[in-house]
Structures are given as C-alpha cells and as structure tokens.
C-alpha cells in the first residue's frame, strides 16, 4: 500500500517564503556590515572644489617630473621608512623630507614622520612603523624645489 502524498498547503508555501526572505535579509545585513566596516573614508571632501584645482595639480606634477629626481621609497628590516633620492643617477645632497603614514583603511591613527639624513641622498625615518600596510604621503625638498610622493609599504 502506497500512502497518498500529503497535499501542498499554504503553510508549506509560507514556510518557503519566510526561509527565502530570511536568507536574503541575512546576506544583505552581513554585506552591509562588511561595507561599512571596511570603508576608509573619502578621497576628497568636495569633488567640485577638487575639480577646480585639477589643472593646478597637473601643472605641479609636470614641474615635479621636470626636476628629474628619482626617488625610491621602502622599509628597512626594522620597519623604518627609507628614502633614496637621486638626480641623473647621483645621490641628491641636502634633501629633507617629512610626511604622514596613514593606514589605508583608516583603522589606525595617522603617524607624523620625520626623517634624518644618513648619507647624501639617503633619509631614514626617526621611528619605525607598526606592522601592517601603510600609505606614506611624503614631501621631499631640496633648495627651493620639492616633490610629493605617495607610496604604499608593507
């Protein structure tokens, strides 16, 4: 004897709909939490004002390129930021640098950076960076000229 199958009722349909929308809502809440938790902020506060300054920024970049300075930026084994700067392959003497180390996701506070010359064209940060990935926003100057660099280090 084959028992007759149970009929599909409104209660079955309600259970299916509640389970389906429960999964959709749960996934949306998890994704929203990840989106808000990893948002590092804005690049510019006012895009209209930034657009008005864009041509000036391009001109500064061209002037910076015209200097012909070659900068290598990285970390040493003790996590001190290092800057090596040269012109035509020769170390550039008398350079000074300052900057800020910012956490790319904004989870850690920014760190002000000071540099000490260790050799002509070579600068070393006065303190090490904590572990992790950091974005160095640097200003390197010599004489009346300066360049700005942004480098990500790990």
From TrEMBL:
Q: Which Pfam families match?
A: FixH
Spell out where the chain crosses the membrane. 12-31
Q: Quote the InterPro entries the UniProt record gives.
A: FixH, FixH_proteobacterial
- Keyword terms of this UniProt record: Membrane, Transmembrane, Transmembrane helix
The protein's name is Nitrogen fixation protein FixH
**Species assigned in the record:** Edaphosphingomonas laterariae
């Amino acid at each position: 004897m084959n028992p007759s199958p149970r009929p599909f009722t409104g209660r079955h349909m309600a259970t299916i709909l509640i389970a389906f929308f429960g999964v959709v809502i749960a996934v949306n809440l998890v994704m929203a939490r990840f989106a808000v938790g990893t948002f590092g902020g804005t690049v510019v506060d006012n895009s209209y004002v930034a657009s008005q300054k864009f041509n000036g920024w391009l001109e500064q970049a061209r002037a910076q390129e015209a200097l012909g300075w070659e900068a290598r930026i990285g970390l040493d084994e003790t996590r001190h930021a290092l800057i090596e700067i040269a012109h035509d392959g020769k170390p550039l003497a008398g350079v000074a640098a300052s900057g800020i180390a910012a956490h790319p996701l904004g989870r850690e506070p920014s760190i002000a950076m000071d540099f000490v010359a260790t050799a002509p064209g070579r600068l070393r940060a006065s303190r090490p960076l904590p572990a992790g990935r950091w974005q160095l926003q640097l200003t390197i100057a010599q004489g009346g000229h300066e360049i700005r660099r942004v480098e990500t280090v790990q």
